[in-house]
Design a protein that fits this description.
- The chain has a domain at about 15-40.
- Helix content is about 25%, strand content about 25%.
- The protein has two helices and six strands, in the order αβαβββββ.
- The strands form two sheets. Strands 2-1-5-6 form a four-stranded mixed beta sheet, with helices on one face. Strands 3-4 form a two-stranded antiparallel sheet.
- The chain is globular, with a radius of gyration of 12 Å.
- About 15% of the residues are buried.
């Protein structure tokens, strides 16, 4: 049950950071990014190796985001509670 609540909490967010999202459109993380973007979520791609992803500016780290986010996606895991201090 906890996993379902985590997914529900994740999908309730307005702003989500995607850490390490791939520029390769067939990769899983990119597919999830595309699906959420197409559904109107505000997404911040985080990839120190890319300047942009599909026309959207990429940020080199979580600390470089323009605003705090409630969740970020990393390595196919959801992590919540990042409004203050962000891990590097």
């Amino acid at each position: 049950m906890a996993a379902r609540q985590d997914v529900d909490d994740f999908l309730a967010q307005k702003q989500i950071a995607f850490v390490g999202v791939s520029r390769d459109p067939i990769q899983f993380a990119n597919k999830v990014y595309q699906a959420l973007r197409d559904r109107g979520y505000g997404l911040y791609p985080v990839n120190p190796q890319a300047k942009e992803l599909e026309g959207v500016a990429c940020y080199p780290s979580l600390a470089d985001l323009p605003e705090p986010v409630g969740f970020f996606h990393r390595c196919h895991r959801f992590v919540k509670g990042l409004s203050g201090s962000l891990p590097s």
